[in-house]
Amino acid sequence: MLSTAPLAYAADDVTLQTIKVRADKPSSIDSVVLVENTQAQNRTLGGMLEHVSGVQSSAFGPNAGAPVIRSLSGSRVQILEDGQSILGMNALSGDINIPFDPLFARSVTVNKSSDSVRFGGNAIGGSVDVDSGLVSRKMESKEKDLEFVLRKGFNDANAQGLRMNFNDGKRFSTNLQMSFQKIGHYDIPGNSKAGVCNSQLFPLKGGVNTFLADSCQKEARVQQVYNKASQPFIDQFMKENPDWADGDFSFYTNQPTSVWQRKTYVNPANPAYVPGTPKTAQNKINKDVTPDYHGTLGNSHASNSHFAVGSTYFFDRGYVAVSLDTKNSEYGVPGFSMENKSFGANYDEGLPVGVVISQDKYALEAKLLDPVAYMESAQLRVSRLNNASGERLGAAKANDYQFDTNQAELLLAHRRAGPLSGLLGLSHKARDIAGSGTQLYLPDASTVSNALFVKESLDLDWATFDAGFRHEKVDHDIRKSGFKTSRNAKNVKLEDKSFSLNSYSLGASAKLGQLFGAKLRYAASERAPDVNELYASNRHYSIMTQEEGNQDLKAERARNTELTGLFANRGFQLSATGYVMKYENYLYLGHSGAQMANRLPLKYWKQTDTTVKGFEIDASQVIQLGGYGKLNLSAFADLVKNKADNPDKLRAHNDGAYLPNMPTNRYGANVLWENQGWKARLSSTWYDKQKYLGKSVSEEVPLDGYTMVNFQVSRALQVPNSPFAGLEVFISGTNLLDDDARPHNSPLKYIAPLPGRGFQIGLSAKL
C-alpha cells in the first residue's frame, strides 16, 4: 500500500505495456501519480491531468493549457518528455502551448511534491514527465505492431494517427509515430464575454473597475454630462452670442434676467426644466474593444501535427536508443487582441492573436548494467531541443523566439547495500534565446546550468526513508541584439547574473498496523529567477501587461512540509495529504498602479514572503460484480491558498494578499465499469466559486462555479478471419451540461469560456 501512489481515474488503460523501471524512479514517499493515456479528449497536457487532485490546467483558451500544481506553474513546474526538459517559451508566456501528442503519448508521471533535488530549481513546485512511447526500453512482445487511429469530433478536433513498431525480437526495435489534429472553431453555450463584463464594470461606490474592464477588453468610462433640465431659464445673451459659450451649461441660468456689457437681457423660461434635478448626470460608456461572440468562440481554430521515429539497439547489458521528434502547431488565442485600443479608437481595426510553434527534438538514451565495480547501472541522456514560438497579430509577425537547448545527464546507480540504494547524478543544460519582431519583450540571452545531485533510499520491512541533495549553478548571459528596454524599465543596463543553488529533501513512510500508513516529506529548495523575471521589458500582450524585470532579484527559496495519511481495506483506498510551502523571496508581478499604451497595466517583477498551503483527498472503492465485470468508484477534493505573509502597503493596495488567477477548490467523482472488452466511464467535477481574491488595483471579480461532466464508452472487438489483431471503437463526451465554464485560474476567464458540449467518436485498429 505504501509503495503505490494514489491513482488518478484516468489511469485505467490495461492495453498499455508496462515500462521497465529506470534508475531514476520517483520516490514512493513523494505525491506521485501515473496517468495513462486512454482515448479521452486530451486537447492539452494540462487538460489531460486536470482530474488529478491538486492539478489544474492554466486554460489559456482551449488550445493552450499547462499543468498548474498546487497553484504553481510556469518556471516552477518542470515539464519533461522521456526524462528531458521541454520547458521553453511555454514557461514564460501562457499563450504558448506545451507541444504534446494527445494520441500516442503513453503516460504522464506527475510529482506534486517539490522535485528540485532531481530536476533543479524549475521543479520547485513539482514535475511532469511525459512518456512519449517513442523509445523501447525493453524488447517488444510482438515482432510487428501497427495501429491506426481515426477520430471524428463534434465541437472537438478531428484526429488521425499511425503508430508502428517493428523489431527482430533480439537486438533492434524501431517505433514510428505520426498524428494530426484539426478544428475550425469551438462552440460555446452563450456569449464569449462573461456577464460580469457588463454587470460589474461600474461599482455601486462609483467609478470604473479598471482591472475588470481591461480583462474584458472593454472601453469603460464615466462621463459627467450637463443636465439641460436642471435650470429654469435660458440665457438670452448666450443664445444671441453662441461663440461666447464654453458648453451646454453656458446657455442656461437660474436668473430671470442677466446683465451683459451694461445691457439687461430678459431670459425666457426653459421648457425642459424639471425642478429639483441635479446639474450633471452620469453617462456610462461601455464598448467592446474586441468582439463579444455568441454561440461560437472566435479565433479558436487549431491545427497540430507530429512526426517521430525512435530506434533502440539492445545488447546483453543494456541498450542504446536514438530518436527524432518534430511537432508543429498553429492556433488562435480566442477572444483576445493585442490591440486593446485606447479610448475613442476604431475598434474594427483590432487584430486577433495567433500562435505558431515548431519544435524539433533529437535525443539519445543509453543504459549500461554493471558498468564498474559497486555500480548497478549507468544511464545517459543527451538531447537537442529547437523550439520556435511566435505570436501573430493578424497575418503580421508580432514576435518570434527561438529556444535552442542542449541537455546531458548521467545517472550512476550504486549496488544495493542491504536496505540501502541510491544514485549519483550529473546534469548540464545550455539554452540560447533569440528574438525577432516588432513586439519583443525579452533580450537575446544564454543560460547555462550545471548540477550534481545524490539520492539515497533506505527500505526496511516496516518503514522507508529517503534523502537527497543537489547543488546547482545557473548563469544568465546577455547577448548583443537590437533589444531596447522601455522608459519605465527598472533595469538601466542589462547585466549578466549568476546564482548558486542548494536543495535537499528528507522523507519517511511507515506502516501503522494492517490498515493504516503515513508519509512525511520535508524539502528545502531554491530557484534562480528566469530571464523574464530578470530582464523582461515592454508590452507582453499574452499576459495583458507591460512587463518589467528586475536584475537585482534574489533566488527564490521554499521550505515544504507534506504529510499524507493512508488507509486501505478490502478494495477501499483513502489518501489524504496536507502541505505547507513557506517561500522566501517569492517572485510575482506587482502592479505599479499605472497604465501604459493600449491600457496595459504597468507591472514589475517583485519578491515577498509567501505561504502556499492546502490539502488533497483521494478515495476509491473496487467492487467485483462477478459475471457483470468490475466497478471502480473514486472521488477527490482539493483546496489551495497562495497568500503573502506580510504584504507591504503597496502590495496590499495594488495586488492584495492573494494573487489573481489562483485555482479554486474542487470536488470530483468518477465511476468506471469494465467487463469483457467493454469500458464505460462517467465523471463529474465541481469547480467552486473563488473565495480568495487578488487585486490589480481593483479587486478581482469572482465568477460562478460550474460542473464539468464527461463520459466515455469503448468496446474492444476481435474480428475473426481479418487482418486486424484487434479493434476498439469509442464515443466520448465533454461538458455534457453545456455549462458556461470559466476556470478562475485562466487569464482569459472573462473573455473565453471553455468549449461547450462536445463529442468524439473514434476507431483504433491494430494489425
From TrEMBL:
Pfam families with a match to the protein in the record: Plug (PF07715), TonB_dep_Rec_b-barrel (PF00593)
Main localization (coarse): membrane
Membrane topology according to the record: Multi-pass membrane protein
Segments forming domain TonB-dependent receptor plug: 24-126
UniProt xrefs under SUPFAM superfamilies: Porins
Membrane-traversing stretches: none
Domain of life according to the entry: Bacteria
Coiled coil: none
Name of the protein: TonB-dependent receptor
Organism of derivation: Janthinobacterium rivuli
Taxonomic path: Bacteria, Pseudomonadati, Pseudomonadota, Betaproteobacteria, Burkholderiales
